[in-house]
């Protein structure tokens, strides 16, 4: 399985993505393609998308934890790794000031 979330894709790349993926929302692509094909799609995205595309790619992998998260450019979300587990930071909580 492969999920791609983009800020903005070049028209040619978006058109090609629609061949393999459903687009439930603008610039959100989901597909159940095989792992080998998913790797080729990710390589294609890295080769044809500028940094301004802001891609976040979630790909299923056979190793633990079962997925990999990769990004290109400013994805508007931060990634963090804790004990080998990749996570997306939704909202950072600022510590309260101590008086």
Notes on the protein architecture:
This protein is an alpha+beta fold and 99 residues long. It has a single domain, classed as Alpha-Beta Plaits (2-Layer Sandwich). Helices cover 24% and strands 34% of the residues. The strands form 2 sheets. Strands 2-3-1-4-5 form a 5-stranded antiparallel beta sheet, covered by helices on one side. A two-stranded antiparallel ribbon has the order 6-7. The longest helix is centred in the middle third of the chain and has 14 residues. The chain is globular. It starts with a strand and ends in a 10-residue tail after the last strand. The model has no long low-confidence stretch (mean pLDDT 86).
